[in-house]
Amino acid sequence: MKNANAARTAPSPYYACQWFEIEASAYYFMLDMLPPLFLRAGMFGMSEFKAGYITSVFFEITIRGRRRWFTGFCDLSDRQSPDAMREAIIAYESQFPDSMTREEKLEAIWGGTHPDFRGIAGSADPSAWPAEHRGKRSILVNAGGHGTILKLLEDLTDEEIEDKLRTGKPSTGA
């Protein structure tokens, strides 16, 4: 018969320090599933271990004004590992919009926009767009006092692009 504690002391390099973005519903499902091993503001650890002292830790983090949820594997033999992972996630996830080209940002906005809020200029009504703009990508944007309008993706201002990336709501411009 194997010692029940042998698994706790086995090295487990395959899991530690890996994280994944998840949906909010998965975060709350896991929080309700088992009593957490620990619970802190915006993070909790599972009471069941993956291997050794490795367990799943769940994070709710606000990045660029947008709430996001992550899970990762932390080695709790290092008491600082959950905080270190949280900081690593924030550092990694915060770097992208600043390092992307304008074209990459536009692609991210297009890809993150729900199909109901994007389209091809002139596909529904060719007379609604000048001939030189027909066939180009368009999205709905919040134009403030002018309400929601259709705008060519390529004509978004730098401010509109940053706002859409920061808020994480590229589909409505709100």
Task: Walk me through what this model shows.
Helix content is 30%, strand content 29%. It is built from six helices and eight strands, in the order αβαββββαααβββα. It has helices spanning 6-9, 24-33, 81-94, 96-99, 102-112, 158-167, and strands spanning 19-22, 38-40, 43-51, 54-63, 66-75, 118-120, 137-142, 148-152. Strand 7 and strand 8 form a beta hairpin. Helix 5 (102-112) packs across helix 6 (158-167). The longest helix has 14 residues, at 81-94. The N and C termini lie far apart (61 Å).
State the gist of this model.
By secondary structure, the chain is of the alpha+beta class.
Secondary structure: number of strands: 8
Which structural class best describes the helix and strand composition?
alpha+beta
List the uncertain runs: 1-14, 169-174
Average pLDDT over all residues: 80
**Rg on CA atoms, Å:** 22 Å
**Helix share bin:** 25-40%
How do the SSEs run, as a string of H and E?
A: HEHEEEEHHHEEEH
The quaternary organization reads as single chain
In angstroms, what separates the terminal alpha carbons? Answer: 61 Å
Main sheet record: 5 strands, antiparallel
- Main sheet strand line-up: 1-5-4-3-2
Total helices: the number is: 6
Overall geometry comes to elongated
Beta-strand residue percentage = 25-35%
